């Protein structure tokens, strides 16, 4: 094998490795209440962006999952700032949940595009290196945050009800890609 072939193989390998890493979260957890706030602080996290549907609340539901309010209170007690970052467009649904949790929110985030994440970090007064995105979808929550250099945490979806594109496209692709953490 020539030096040029080895170099080409290395470049191709690194290219695919980089793409694969963009789909993988840094950490995984079964649910938001299972996340250790002290561990986040120890890793330099100061801001937490949370997806709404199937992460904090069932899809299109005004009620949050058990333990979420207590976890938000614990996170605030540790000095973490939190906000909701959702692709949902209905502010009338998001506002009562955010008000109940006493955290700011961003609707129409258009994840995985960068704008919503940047708006969320502006609300939290954080930078990517000190921000974690917590969500249940690899193709929206995780890949977009990874592209910007945020820490990412993938939680298991807590409800089987979800939007049609998620059910028909995103979840099947996730099964092919996998949901394993980097570390």
Helix content class: 40-55%
Give the C-level CATH assignment: Alpha Beta
Mean pLDDT: 88
Q: What composes the largest sheet?
A: 6 strands, parallel
Low-confidence stretches: none
CATH fold-type name: Rossmann fold
| SSE string | HEHEHEHEHEHEH
Share in β-strands: 5-15%
Count the domains.
Answer: 1
* Span of the ends, CA to CA: 33 Å
Structural class by sheet pairing and helices: alpha/beta
Superfamily (CATH H level) name: HAD superfamily/HAD-like
Strand order within the widest sheet?
1-6-5-2-3-4
Can you walk me through this structure?
The chain has 183 residues and is of the alpha/beta class. The protein has one domain: HAD superfamily/HAD-like (Rossmann fold, 3-Layer(aba) Sandwich), CATH 3.40.50. It contains seven helices and six strands. The chain has helices spanning 3-22, 37-42, 68-77, 91-101, 114-124, 138-148, 164-177; strands spanning 27-29, 47-50, 81-85, 105-106, 131-135, 151-155. Strand 5, helix 6 and strand 6 form a beta-alpha-beta unit. The mean pLDDT is 88.
């Amino acid at each position: 094998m020539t030096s040029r072939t080895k170099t080409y193989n290395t470049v191709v390998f690194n290219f695919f490795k980089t793409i694969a890493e963009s789909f993988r979260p840094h950490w995984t957890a079964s649910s938001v209440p299972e996340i250790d706030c002290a561990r986040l602080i120890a890793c330099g996290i100061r801001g937490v962006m949370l997806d709404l549907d199937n992460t904090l609340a069932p899809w299109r539901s005004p009620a949050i999952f058990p333990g979420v309010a207590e976890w938000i209170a614990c996170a605030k007690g540790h000095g973490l700032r939190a906000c909701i970052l959702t692709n949902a467009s209905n502010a009338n649904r998001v506002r009562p949940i955010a008000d109940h949790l006493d955290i700011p929110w961003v609707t129409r985030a258009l994840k995985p595009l960068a704008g919503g994440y940047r708006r969320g970090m502006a609300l939290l007064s954080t930078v990517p290196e000190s921000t974690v995105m917590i969500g249940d979808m690899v193709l929206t929550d995780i890949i977009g945050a990874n592209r910007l250099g945020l820490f990412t945490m993938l939680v298991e979806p807590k409800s089987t009800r979800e939007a049609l594109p998620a059910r028909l496209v995103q979840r099947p692709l996730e099964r092919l890609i996998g949901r394993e953490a980097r570390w």
